[in-house]
C-alpha cells in the first residue's frame, strides 16, 4: 500500500453552520436529502442511542457535526454528465452523521419516545405507559414546547461541495477512519464514574 498521490492534494472547503434538526429532518422526509448513499452503512443506532441524542438536545451537551454534500453545484453537474443532484435523486447527501439525522427524523415524526420526567409537567399533554414509567413523544408535548424544540434542537453541519459520489465516499473514509472507536470497556468505565465510582 502506498500513501502517494498522482498529484498534489487539493483543499475541499466545508462551511460550518448550525442547522435546526427539524429542518434537516424535513429535508430527508421531502426527498431533498439522502441518508442512504451507497457508501453508507445503514441504520445501526439502537433506541438508547437515539434517546441519548434527545437528552443531549435537552441538556445542551455538544453534538458532533454532520457532514453534508451540496450536489447542486457547477462542479457536481460537470462531473455527472450535466445532471445536478436533484436530477440524480437528491439535492444533498449526508456523508457522515446519518444516525443523528435518523434520530432527528424519529423524534420529530413521533416514532421515538423519551422519559416524561425529562420535561416540566406543564409542557406534557399526554404520556405513554412503559415498563420504565411514563414516556412522551414529540407530539405528546404542548405546541409551545414543540415549536421551541423546532428552533433550539440544533445539528452542527459542515457543508461541502464535493464533485462526485466517489469524493463523498473518500470524505466518509477520512472522517470515519481517522480515530479509534470506543470499546465497551471504555464506555463502561465512563458509566461507572457517572454512577459514582472512583475516577
- Gross morphology: globular
Q: Strand-and-helix sequence, N→C? A: EHEHEHEHEEEHEHH
Number of helices: 7
How many individual β-strands?
A: 8
Low-confidence stretches: none
If you compute it from the alpha carbons, what radius of gyration comes out, rounded to the nearest whole angstrom?
20 Å
Oligomeric category: single chain
Task: Bin the strand percentage.
Answer: 15-25%
What does this structure look like?
This protein has 199 residues and is of the alpha/beta class. The protein has a domain at 14-111 and 153-176. The chain is built from seven helices and eight strands. The chain has helices at residues 21-30, 47-59, 74-79, 98-108, 143-152, 165-177, 184-194; strands spanning 14-20, 33-34, 66-70, 92-96, 114-115, 128-130, 133-136, 154-160. The chain has a five-stranded mixed sheet with strand order 1-8-3-4-2. A three-stranded antiparallel sheet has the order 5-7-6. Strand 6 (128-130) and strand 7 (133-136) form a beta hairpin. Helix 1 packs across helix 4 (98-108). The termini are far apart. The model has no long low-confidence stretch (mean pLDDT 92).
Amino acid at each position: 500500500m502506498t500513501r502517494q498521490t498522482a498529484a498534489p492534494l487539493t483543499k475541499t472547503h466545508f462551511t460550518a453552520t448550525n442547522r435546526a434538526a427539524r429542518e434537516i429532518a424535513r429535508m430527508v422526509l421531502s426527498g431533498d436529502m439522502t441518508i442512504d448513499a451507497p457508501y453508507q452503512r445503514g441504520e445501526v443506532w439502537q433506541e438508547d442511542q437515539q434517546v441519548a441524542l434527545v437528552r443531549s438536545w435537552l441538556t445542551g451537551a455538544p453534538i458532533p457535526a454532520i457532514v453534508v454534500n451540496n450536489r447542486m453545484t457547477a462542479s457536481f453537474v460537470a462531473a455527472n454528465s450535466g445532471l445536478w443532484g436533484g436530477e440524480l435523486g437528491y439535492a444533498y447527501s449526508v456523508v457522515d452523521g446519518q444516525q443523528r439525522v435518523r434520530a432527528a427524523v424519529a423524534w420529530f415524526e413521533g416514532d421515538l419516545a423519551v422519559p416524561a420526567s425529562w420535561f416540566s409537567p406543564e409542557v406534557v399533554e399526554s404520556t405513554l405507559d412503559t415498563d420504565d414509567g411514563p414516556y412522551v413523544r414529540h407530539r405528546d408535548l404542548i405546541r409551545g414546547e414543540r415549536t421551541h424544540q423546532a428552533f433550539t434542537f440544533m445539528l452542527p453541519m459542515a457543508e461541502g461541495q464535493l464533485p462526485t459520489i466517489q469524493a463523498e465516499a473518500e470524505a466518509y473514509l477520512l472522517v470515519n477512519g481517522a480515530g479509534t472507536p470506543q470499546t465497551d470497556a471504555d464506555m463502561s468505565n465512563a458509566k461507572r464514574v457517572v454512577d459514582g465510582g472512583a475516577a
